[in-house]
Amino acid sequence: MKNTSMEDLVSLCKRRGFIFQSNEIYGGLQGLYDYGPLGVELKNNLKKSWWKSMIYERDDVEGIDSSILTNPLVLKYSGHENTFTDPLVDCKSCGERFRADQVPDYCKKEDLTEPRQFNLMFKTNVGPIEDGNSFAYLRPETAQNIFTNFKNVLDSNPHPLPFGIAQMGKAFRNEITPRNFIFRVREFEQMELEFFVKPGEDEEWHKKWTDLRMQWWEDQGVSKESLELYHVPSDELAHYSKATVDIMYNFPHGLEELEGIANRTDFDLGSHTKGQKELDIDAKVAENTQSNAKLAIQDLETKKWVVPYVIEPSAGVDRGFLAILNEAYKIESLENNKERTVLSLKPHLAPIKIAVIPLKRNESSIVKTSVDLKNELQRSIEGRILLENTGNIGKNYRKHDEIGTPACITVDFQTLDDNSVTIRDRDTMDQKRMKIDEVRPFLAQNYNI
Ligand code: GAP
User: Fold this and answer.
1) Which atom of ligand 1 approaches the CA of 178 most closely?
2) How many angstroms does the Cα of residue 176 sit away from the middle of ligand 1?
3) Digits of tens for pLDDT over the chain (449 positions)?
4) CA 257 to ligand 1 centroid distance, Å
5) Residue-wise pLDDT tens digits, 138-188
6) Whose CA is closest to 187, among 65, 51, 22?
7) Which residues pair with 88 in a beta bridge?
């Protein structure tokens, strides 16, 4: 099991430009972080990998990208206005507020107020009138506008059941106590799939999606030993869920939720649909008099209208980022009592795919060959190829080990004679000499890029 500390990861992220505290020059704003030049690459690569596995590698899922500002009616009928709360307590001694299950040891029980429910949704004014009625919520999950677009997507891109709609993007929660770096924040990203199935087939699909999602995390480099499934007990289930399995990851601060896979039954479509009385809705839903869309599918054989059940794998991008960073981070001992930090990221996630390093900074022929090689590789490789023109080869190798670049290519004086370069592997530190025209197939074969 890994024993990297959160401080190690925070320090690497700041030093190398993965993640910065947001609004730092004005003292920051709690629970918000900014992704720097390397962080944005890794985060985008993670999202691309999810999108590829959900949309491109399947024929039964469509993607959307909906607005963040959300009509309050959506979150009224989804149940969020009434139930998306956490218990809040005040400490009369220190004057601070905490989530009731996260009170620090220094507050005495007798100093705490009775817990009261605090709604986690952010509101913002919409339009020029600030009368308290013209507001929207910042979506607390990406899921809801998948449900509200159910008919639009199906009318334009018809699918029989089962099929899914996927979305990734920002979600906002006014967490009472944001903590543990990017683990619990107030602005984060989710990758969510709502997979619509025939009622009765939901339990089978729930199991299938749990297996698929576990495998996907392993494919991103998260070791099996660091993952665990947690079957959420019925008294802890969200209001919409018949069953939820959480994929738990052993973060530096403990075993916590990385992704939740919920069986949301027909609660969401049933809550947002018009004509509820004519439909056979199993879930207990509030009466909806304001929706103008029938969110159901006609069974081609029986001609009966069916409100599909939903299986929802919902993953946090930021938590995924943290898990992947933690898995990849290693300090290795070298000869002569030296050590190096290595980020053994899978190549498809690495922020820099290849660094091209001219051995001598001011040697124009070497630099020109390096620039040409960089440009040529960049044309066919998806992701960033970096020209590292600082002249210190040892320092460059250390840097690229630490930021997870799978391989460095060095252009030297011999290159000018015989058109060969050296490729150094991040993990083994082995170096191979080869002709420039062998480089591209070598990278494809060894790094799958
Ligand atoms: N649509 C279902 C849903 O939103 P959730 O368990 O509340 O379910 C799904 O959130 C995922 O979103 C979590 O497993 C977690 O990875 C991520 N997440 C939730 N709240 C978060 C927060 N405050 N900061 C970072 N990630 C968060």
Assistant:
1) 23
2) 14
3) 677 999 999 999 999 999 999 999 999 999 999 999 999 999 999 999 999 999 999 999 999 999 999 999 999 999 999 999 999 999 999 998 999 988 999 999 899 999 999 999 999 999 988 887 899 999 999 999 999 999 999 999 999 999 999 999 999 999 999 999 999 999 999 999 999 999 999 999 999 999 999 999 999 999 999 999 999 999 999 989 999 999 999 999 999 999 999 999 999 999 999 999 999 999 999 999 999 999 999 988 889 999 999 999 999 999 999 999 999 999 999 988 899 999 999 999 999 999 999 999 889 999 999 999 999 999 999 999 999 998 799 999 999 999 999 999 999 999 999 999 999 999 999 999 999 999 999 999 999 99
4) 8
5) 999 999 999 999 999 999 999 999 999 999 999 999 999 999 999 999 999
6) 22
7) 99, 116
What is the CA(322)–ligand 1 centre distance, in A? 14
Question: Phi and psi of 250, rounded to 5°?
Answer: -80, 80
Closest Cα to residue 54, out of 163, 206, 169? 163
Please tell me what DSSP assigns to residue 427. Answer: T
Instruction: Give the pocket of ligand 1 (CB within 6 Å).
Output: 141, 143, 173, 175, 184-185, 188, 190, 192, 257-260, 312, 314-316, 318-319
Handedness of CA 357, 363, 366, 369 (dihedral sign): positive
Closest C-alpha to 38, from 301, 355, 311, 316: 355
Query: Which residue's CA is minimally distant from atom 2 of ligand 1?
Result: 314
Q: H/E element holding 324?
A: helix 317-328
> Cα(396) to centroid of ligand 1, in Å?
37
* Distance in angstroms (rounded) separating the CA atoms of residues 177 and 342: 32
Q: Are 4 and 252 in contact (CB under 8 A)?
A: yes
Distance CA 77, CA 91 (A): 34
CB 77 within 8 A of CB 272: yes
CB 402 within 8 A of CB 443: no
Q: How far is CA 322 from the centre of its chain?
A: 9
Tokens representing 109 are 């029980």
160 with 175: CB under 8 angstroms? no
Taking the model in full, what pTM does it have? 0.96
